[in-house]
Every structure is written in structure tokens, then in C-alpha cells.
Amino acid sequence: PPSIQSAACVTMARVYGPTFNEMLYPEKVDPTVRARALKAQREGDELDPVNLYNITWKDEHSKPYHIVIPKEITGVPCNIVCLTSAHFPTGSHKVGATYSVTMEHQLRNEIAPGKHTVVWPSTGNYGIGGAWVSGRMGYDSLVLLPELMSKERFAMIEGYGGRYIKTPGCESNVKEIYDKSEQLKKENPEVIQIANQFMEFGNYRFHYYVTGTTCVELVKDLKEKGIGNGRVAAFCSSMGSGGTIAAGDKLKQSFYECKIVGLEPIQCPTLYSNGFGGHDIQGIGDKHATWIHNIANMDALMCIDDMECKQGLQLLTDPTGMDFLIKEAGVDPAAMHHLAKVVGISGVCNILGAIKTAKFYQLGKDDTVITICTDTVERYHSVMSDLDATFGKMDTVKAAVRLAHIFHGQKLDYIDEGTVHARNRWLNLKYYTWVEQRGKDVRELEAQRSQVYWLKKQAEVEEMDKLQRELRQRK
Fold first, then answer.
1. Which of 33, 113, 428, 475 is the most exposed, fewest CB within 10 Å of its CB?
2. How far apart are CA 437 and CA 175, in angstroms?
3. In Å, what is the CA distance from 361 to each residue of 35, 76, 229, 367?
4. Burial of 103 (0-12, 13-18, 19+ CB in 10 A)
5. Range with the poorest average pLDDT among 178-187, 236-245, 333-342, 360-369
6. Cβ contact 374:281 at 8 Å
């Protein structure tokens, strides 16, 4: 892996990639650059820095990558639609957050290639994205990751030229990551720059503006195909850093009736009941309320079982499970094979949360729930092998039971509606992590209760884009 010195040998010049607006509308990218980026994507040349311009939810025709989950799987009448992330560099949408965070630090002259090591506190996909983005933009990268994350995660970080430090615990052990970050910063304050996804508003802005607006466009496209009424009834997102759920803020602004539903593991119900515990929905449920999460705008909180997510993923991706769903459940073969390529553990969590949401709000055939497939099963083959070792290999009986129990039988338990009291309770949890432990100003915490605070954060999208365009022109 590269040292700080070797990073300096790569480049001392700043690399400027796309603006927020260009990530939303890739057709606005310079045609020559766009053609090069698409060529690199087609040829699988993932390490070429031009792939920064492939950080978008859209294909070569500027249409969102998505899948409508077959109703034979969901068992509900409404439309459950997922934006999919498999096409992004690294295979996860987290690369959008890592690029946006890096870009904003660079625009503010807080980091420079060859001078700084960027530290990425992560439970997986953010760290993988950080290693990839750092390498494309000339930065040395160091990822902090709990030791119990999947083997594939560590291998991908190394594959993109990053280094990592394993911290104690599993997905929910984020405090240990924070502590290690602060230790590294104290030891080398001039070199170490921490890109903390849980408090970086570049993460929030990417999802509010790019992900959220893409969802608005997607439901309009679907209506033209006879799917849904062109509106969003609910947006479901499992909560890790609190970035992805920011898309709900844009959707609620566009569709007044849209419900924002946050998801967390039953095994670690932090917001639901001030609970704690280990779990294995990798990428979410990090045992605290994050600084960038607009909790006061959330309409409901629902908890999902981690084992159901893992066993559900195995049903959707194991050849025997897929064969059962096609031949016995009547799932369209093309849709089945598409879904198997674009879903991971937290994606199944989001689908189950969307089913739960559809049942709870009694949504009908014209309604649409939007959620996200955040990564793919390629990161979890070792987890699937562990399931085989524990429960035996998939067969038709297991497949039938899992479809009936996990998907069609998704229960209406562990639901907390966003009353005034609940929203204040959720937001108050930020005090302990961010004011007491991390030195945030309590006055800013109080300001987060008002949507005016969040409107100001959203407005910075245009400010960042303007500065980005000016600096690119100077090069």
C-alpha cells in the first residue's frame, strides 16, 4: 500500500472531478470527458481517474439505474422501487459520499495531495469508497474498520491502494473507530485529516441533491411506463451515517405526502428504544444518532432483523433460491437475474423495510415506495458461506419458508411513529455522542430542530458547485 511519501510522488496537483450538478445530470459533463468515462466503465478500467465522472445514478442515456421489485417477492400491492448502485465505481453508492466529502475539503483548502493522509472512519463501503477516491485524486488513505466486517471489504480496500486498521468489534462498534481517529490525529496533526462520514455534510448534500432529485425524476419516468402515479408515497432507508436518508428531505419537498422512514436493526435499536448490541447488517446501525441526520424530518422508525436480511439475500442470490422464485413463485426470470446482481445485505434490509412501510401505511397499487440497493452480494460471499455452514445449503423447502416468512410475512412490530415527542427524543440522542464526547456546540444541536438549519445546508450545493467550476477553469 502507498505511504505518504509515495502519494507525494504520484501528484502534487489537485484533481477536480464533477460538480454536484454534473453528478445529477451527467449529460452536462464535457462530451469528451463523458465519452472517456463511459469507455472506462465499459472496459472495466476502474482505476482510471476519469471514472470520477461515473459517480452518478444514471446510465449512458441519463436514465436512473433501478429495479422494480417483483410483487411475487414483496407480496404487497404497491410498487417498491430501488435505485441500484452496482454500476458505481467500487460497486456501491458510498463512493458518491466519499468523493463529495473529499471534494469539499479540497475546495476549502483543507487537504492537498502529497501533504495529507485522509482517514476514513467506516464500517465498510464508505472506507472502500474512500480508498478508491483517494487513489484517483492523489491522496494517501487510511481506513478504520471494525475487525468483524466481511473479508471482502478488507480485500477491496487493499485492492484500491488503501491501508486499513482493524478496530475492535462489529458493525455497531463505531465509538472505537472515533477513538482511533482522534488518536491518529493527535499523533500527527499536520498530516492526518479525518473525513468522518457521520458528521460531514458533503455526504448529506450528495444524497439530498443527487440521490433525492434522481428519485423525483425516476417516478416520473415510471409513470410514463404505467408504473405508479408519478409521486413518492414513502422513502425508506436504513441508517448508517445518515447520508442516504437525506434523499427523503428532497422527496418530501417535492411530494408533500412522502413519508421518510428510517430503518435500524432489531439487534441494535438505538433510536427505537435507546438500545444497543451487535448485529450483522453491515453498513447500518452504528449505535448512535449521527450529526448529519435530519432526524426531526423523519416520519417513522422501523427495526429489521439482521438474520432475516442475510437469509433473504441468500434466497435472492443462491441459484436454488432463484430457481424456486422463478419456477414456483412466478418471478420473471429477467427480473430475478437482475435483482440477484444488484442487492446486498443492507439492500434486503431496505426492501423489507419498504414492505413493512407499505403494510403499515396501507399503500395501494398506484403508490410507490422508493429505497436503495446500496451494494451487491459480491461483498458477502463469505457471509453466505457462513450461512451454509450454520443452516445447511439452500433447498426448495428453505426457499419457500423464507419467501413466506421473511418477505410475505414481514410483521408490523418494532415501529415508532414520528410524533413531536418521538422526534425530540431521537434528536436528543445526538447530545451524548456529539456535544459531550466530540465537542459540538449545543446551540447548533438545538438549531437542528428547525428545518431552516437544513435548508441552509442544502443551499451550499450551489456554493460548492460555483467554487468547483471556478477552480477547474483556472487549471
1. 475
2. 10
3. 44, 12, 17, 11
4. buried
5. 178-187
6. no
Does the pLDDT at position 288 exceed 90?
no
Question: How far is residue 69 from each of residues 316, 331, 434, measured CA to CA in Å?
Answer: 11, 10, 38
Query: Hey, what amino acid is at 313?
Result: L
Contact predicate 249/297, CB 8 Å = yes
Distance CA 19, CA 461 (A): 9
- On the question of pLDDT at 1 being above 80, the answer is no
Entry pTM: 0.93
Closest by CA position to 216, among listed 250, 257, 243: 250
For 35: left if phi > 0, alpha if psi spans -120 to 50, otherwise beta; the answer is alpha
Q: What distances in angstroms separate CA 289 from CA 88, 200, 202, 269, one per listed residue?
A: 27, 14, 17, 11
The H or E element that residue 140 is part of is strand 140-146
pLDDT tens, residue by residue, 434-464: 999 989 999 999 999 999 999 999 999 999 9
CA distance 342 to 246: 22
How far, in Å, CA of 87 to CA of 36, rounded? Answer: 16
For the sheet with 415-417, list strands across it: 66-68, 79-84, 368-373, 234-238, 259-265, 300-304, 415-417
The residue count of the chain comes to 475
